[in-house]
Design goal:
Blueprint: H1 11-14, E1 15-21, H2 25-36, E2 43-49, E3 64-69, H3 75-85, E4 90-93, E5 99-100, H4 104-111, E6 120-129, E7 135-139, E8 168-170, H5 171-176, H6 188-199, E9 201-213, H7 224-237, H8 239-244, H9 246-262, H10 266-279, H11 284-299
Parallel strand pairs: 1-2, 1-4, 2-3, 6-9
Antiparallel strand pairs: 4-8, 5-9, 6-7
Length: 300
């Protein structure tokens, strides 16, 4: 990617990092510190999603501010509220239990224009670590052309679509597609990515910018019930798009079913496999193998 001309605006004027939080004081402090430690610091807007007691900032900084929702409303609404309060042309998000890697601010200071193109967004790699800080994997970001369907596309070997937490988006584009869907309990980034990719190119940056922590405290992504309800909701909402990519859609349903099996939810898994079969009968053999594994588990 060619570097853009020197900006007229500082990074704090161009980019706001929105951190939704709910009762994670220590993790929130780590997330904030990881952004303030950058050589180029953006605006940081913490959105307290109804914590009791209310969240407090552990330090003062001109780049850092806090807003609050009085009742816990979920990650989608908290993120939407944060974007409504932001004034920068670019926005991005950081979960309160994750952190930015060193060099992220400098990278964004290099690539983000003062006036963004509304049909161009950025995505970067993710480093995944366990509770002890050991690196489990590094996910390399993948670029998508405008009009594609994010995870409902084939992904090149060595790349991953599971980097959506790192999206850097023109605020105008965010509002144009309606922000995050507040009807979802889980998978809000996945559903958002489908709508975003329909109207914008998503350009992959070479470097990892984001450290995702796998930990033992409550994480929405680990709740199988919420995840399955959200899977069904996304399937219905984007059914036409899913059907237009039947092979990839069937693969998505099968991957979802495998995870449900590991979580001892065989009936939800069978529902996902039935959808995969209806979408792509050619996937029947794969689905039958997964069904067989369900049956074996149920007999144990």
């Amino acid at each position: 990617m060619n570097a853009r001309p020197d900006p007229q605006l500082s990074l704090s004027e161009r980019l706001t990092v929105i951190i939704p939080t709910f009762e994670r004081t220590e993790m929130l402090a780590r997330a904030i510190d990881s952004v303030l430690a950058q050589s180029a610091v953006p605006r940081i807007l913490v959105v307290d999603d109804g914590s009791d007691p209310p969240a407090r900032l552990h330090r003062s900084d001109a780049s850092l501010s806090l807003v609050r929702l009085e009742t816990n409303s979920g990650g989608a609404k908290a993120r939407n509220y944060g974007v409504e309060q932001a004034v920068s042309p670019w926005i991005t998000f950081l979960d309160d239990d994750d952190e930015w890697l060193s060099g992220t601010g400098a990278l964004y200071d290099t690539v983000l224009a003062d006036e963004p193109q509304t049909d161009l967004c950025y995505v970067s790699g993710i480093e995944v670590v366990d509770p002890e800080g050991k690196t489990l994997e590094v996910r390399k970001a993948v670029s998508r052309s405008e009009g594609e369907a994010w995870f409902l596309e084939d992904t090149p070997s060595g790349s991953s679509h599971l980097t959506k937490q790192t999206f850097v988006i023109p605020a105008e584009t965010y509002f144009r597609i309606g922000g995050f869907d507040t009807a979802l309990e889980s998978r809000i980034h996945s559903e958002f990515a489908l709508r975003l990719n329909r109207v914008a190119k998503i350009q992959a940056l070479e470097h990892a910018t984001y450290r995702l922590h796998k930990h033992r405290q409550g994480q929405v992504s680990k709740d199988p019930g919420k995840r399955h309800r959200s899977f069904r909701y996304i399937w219905r909402k984007h059914e036409r798009l899913v059907r237009s990519r039947s092979r990839q859609g069937a693969r998505w349903a099968q991957d979802h079913a495998r995870r449900l099996i590991r979580e001892s939810r065989p009936y939800d898994a069978l529902h996902a496999l039935w959808l995969a079969f209806l979408l792509s009968p050619r996937s029947a053999l794969t689905s039958l193998r997964i069904v067989a594994s369900v049956a074996v588990r149920r007999m144990r």
